[in-house]
Amino acid sequence: MIILGESMEFQDTILRSVEQHPVPYLVKLKGLDYVMFPETFNPNYAKASLFLLDNLGVQDGDVVLDPFTGSGADAIFAVREGASRAVAIDKFTMPYLCARYNVHRLGLEDRVDVRQGDLFDVLTEDERFNLVIANPPFKAMQPHSDIAAALRDEEYATLHRFFSEVGKYLTDDGRIRMVFSDVGDMDLLQDLAKNHGFLPEVVNQTKYASSVRIEVYEMRREK
Ligand SMILES: C[S@@+](CC[C@H](N)C(=O)[O-])C[C@H]1O[C@@H](n2cnc3c(N)ncnc32)[C@H](O)[C@@H]1O
Q1: How far is the CA of 70 from the centre of ligand 1 (A)?
Q2: Torsion angle of the four alpha carbons 61, 62, 68, 74, in this order, in degrees rounded to the nearest 10
Q3: Residue 69 alpha carbon to ligand 1 centre in Å
Q4: Could you state, in order of their start, the residue ranges of all structural domains in the chain?
Q5: Which CATH architecture has domain 4-221?
Q6: How confident is the model over 83-107, as pLDDT tens digits?
């Protein structure tokens, strides 16, 4: 079981790693040349992000929503793995610009639509997706900066909102792929999913530094 001091140390390490970059920089992301922007969550710094990227569960033709897109990686890899198109959303300017830049660089503008906004605010009433890929902030804590909001969600307001509204944008047989870890409250996550009519099934799990548990869930509507 992870203790509070340890989880803060892990989060501070990720924040310091991101904050050391004042200008855009080139990385390899799963072998792909990728440009990270300042104040943008770099999946290479977080095992949970890489683990989700390895477990996107994309099926040919999926229409994907990535409402916590950061650098845009989940949406971009989803279309590279066979999704027909994706909408990628982030609340903050630097991740939004980073995702747009990489979509442009990779020639995917006709398939990945990047929007800036708070969760589902930038969707129209009639948009529907059959795969929602979600890497939300894990910890119930007030963020002190835009980049800290990648990791911290005050009183889990964003997580609550995600589950109360996601069903509206999912097709009847749509599914959610979500990563979470015991840096946050995994029991609450599963309860929220069930309370909103979804069945959370663990499709893969791993550990970080021998004590942090990371799980990828697939969630479908209970029949
Ligand atoms: C843990 S990071 C994941 C980023 C990316 N999917 C990845 O795996 O590298 C969470 C992202 O969600 C964004 N975010 C946090 N709250 C949000 C909200 N209410 N609406 C949209 N994006 C939000 C953060 O800015 C951050 O980029």
Answers
A1: 5
A2: -50
A3: 5
A4: 4-221
A5: 3-Layer(aba) Sandwich (3.40)
A6: 999 999 999 999 999 999 999 999 9
